[in-house]
């Protein structure tokens, strides 16, 4: 049975960041990674952005970690935390001293449509969508993934139709006037929109797909992509009796309820004073920083994870960076240099800044972090000057 000092389950950005951090602190400790996908670790964000706009596919590969034994295409299926052993789907058992669960998330699926719908998450999904015949693509959902992939496909010359339950794109995140502007931008860029609609069924007819809409209408397409959000992939942890609650629960040092088992990235629910409780974050900066922190902790450099992650998105020529809680239900104060092109939106709760949206404004993440971490009431009149 292979036996390793460090074993990482999950070959995503978190698992990779952890492995790299372990290697920095412990150049010789034996280190292995079980990765369900067939590929070596790669960056996901370009899949819904640059790769459609001419960026080289080879740019996604993450730097190899020296001495890492990568078992790609292997899924861990059972875990015995008392024995410090796990088994994979090829029937092999692995022994570890320290284990990281970086199993990320699985896309939510529709109850119909089967393989005709691409749930856009992996490099294999990118390949499938890129190689699909025909120009017409229907995108279900207008969250982060739906809106990004729709914009990228439209820029790549596809005829894109979006179907989503909200009244506008980003309705739950941006203040109403910004969501309206974003929605207008999609229309102006040629994306056909079906707001306030659910997809209720899917039929294949002569090579094309027909989506039935809740209003009774229909959308015909050659390919269908869905971005309906993800659920934390806690299956392995739950079967092993590790405490989970819509994510694997970890303490401030990213330890799970089982001895010598850590969790990080999209799958982990961690205590964040700045974000106000136990949260799960599904963004790159958290995957990288938390993966790194977990790797360091496993290699003996423990300390609380206090990082307040930022996140970002690109939609046509619009883009942003953001920190904290972006929830359109909070009170918002917008300060525009150029309306809807460059400015800051502050999200307030109890008079304190809970989130900051840096719209078309880059290099101000630290200032935004300081505001959110301050957690002190801020005078509304001072806000426009808070981030120059
Ligand atoms: C298309 C796309 C675009 C994105 N764009 C942005 C962006 O612009 N900005 C931003 O901040 N964030 C973005 N994100 C989010 C960011 O990429 C994720 O937060 C990050 O990749 C999460 O990494 P992870 O390793 O925690 O989880 P995952 O990426 O989900 O990786 C987990 C891996 O573990 C594997 N696995 C699961 N269970 C097992 C098991 N039992 N055994 C072995 N392997 C297992 C899975 O197959 C998967 O490969 C984007 C995500 C996607 C999909």
Overview of the structural elements:
The protein has eight helices and 25 strands. With about 400 residues, it is of the alpha/beta class. It has three domains: about 5-105 and about 230-300, FAD/NAD(P)-binding domain, CATH 3.50.50.60; about 110-225, FAD/NAD(P)-binding domain (3-Layer(bba) Sandwich), CATH 3.50.50; about 315-385, FAD/NAD-linked reductase, C-terminal dimerisation domain (Enolase-like, domain 1, 2-Layer Sandwich), CATH 3.30.390.30. Helix content is about 20%, strand content about 35%. It has helices at about 15-25, 125-130, 145-155, 175-190, 235-240, 285-300, 365-375, 385; strands at about 5-10, 30-35, 70, 75-80, 85-90, 95-100, 105, 115-120, 135-140, 160-165, 190-195, 200-205, 210-215, 220, 225, 230, 250, 260-265, 270, 275-280, 310-315, 320-325, 330-340, 340-350, 350-360. The radius of gyration is 22 Å and the shape is globular. The model has no long low-confidence stretch (mean pLDDT about 95). Strands 1, 2, 3, 4, 5, 6 and 18 form a seven-stranded mixed sheet that branches. The chain binds flavin-adenine dinucleotide. Flavin-adenine dinucleotide binds near residues 11, 13 and 36.
């Amino acid at each position: 049975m292979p036996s390793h000092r460090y074993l990482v389950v999950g070959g995503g950005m978190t698992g990779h960041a952890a492995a790299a951090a372990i290697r920095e602190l412990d150049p010789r400790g034996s280190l292995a990674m079980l990765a369900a996908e067939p590929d070596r670790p790669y960056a996901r964000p370009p899949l819904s952005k640059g790769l459609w706009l001419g960026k080289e596919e080879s740019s996604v590969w993450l730097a190899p970690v020296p001495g890492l034994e990568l078992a790609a295409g292997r899924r861990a299926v059972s875990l015995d935390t008392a024995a410090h052993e796990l088994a994979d789907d090829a029937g092999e058992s692995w022994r570890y001293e320290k284990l990281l669960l970086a199993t990320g998330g699985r896309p939510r699926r529709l109850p119909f449509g089967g393989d005709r719908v691409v749930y856009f998450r992996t490099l294999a999904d990118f390949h499938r969508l890129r190689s699909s015949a025909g120009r017409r693509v229907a995108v279900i959902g207008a969250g982060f993934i739906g809106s990004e992939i729709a914009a990228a496909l439209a820029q790549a010359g596809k005829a894109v139709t979006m179907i989503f339950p909200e009244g506008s794109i980003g309705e739950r995140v941006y203040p109403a006037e910004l969501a309206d502007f974003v929605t207008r931008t999609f229309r102006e860029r040629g994306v056909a929109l079906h707001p306030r609609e659910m997809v209720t069924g899917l039929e294949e007819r002569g090579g094309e797909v027909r989506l039935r809409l809740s209003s009774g209408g229909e959308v015909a397409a050659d390919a269908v992509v869905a971005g309906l959000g993800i659920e934390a992939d806690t299956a392995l942890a739950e079967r092993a009796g590790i405490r989970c609650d819509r994510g694997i629960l970890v303490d401030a040092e990213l330890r799970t309820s089982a001895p010598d088992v850590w969790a990080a990235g999209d799958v982990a629910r961690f205590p964040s004073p700045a974000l106000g409780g136990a949260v799960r974050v599904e963004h790159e900066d958290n995957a990288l920083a938390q993966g790194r922190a977990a790797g360091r902790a496993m290699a003996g450099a423990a300390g609380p994870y206090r990082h307040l992650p930022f996140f970002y998105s690109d939609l046509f020529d619009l883009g942003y960076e953001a920190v904290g809680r972006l929830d359109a239900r909070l009170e918002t104060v917008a300060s525009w240099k150029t309306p809807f092109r460059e400015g800051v939106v502050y999200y307030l709760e109890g008079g304190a800044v809970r989130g900051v949206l840096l719209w078309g404004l880059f290099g101000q993440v630290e200032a935004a972090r300081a505001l959110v971490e301050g957690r002190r009431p801020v005078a509304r009149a001072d806000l426009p000057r808070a981030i120059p």
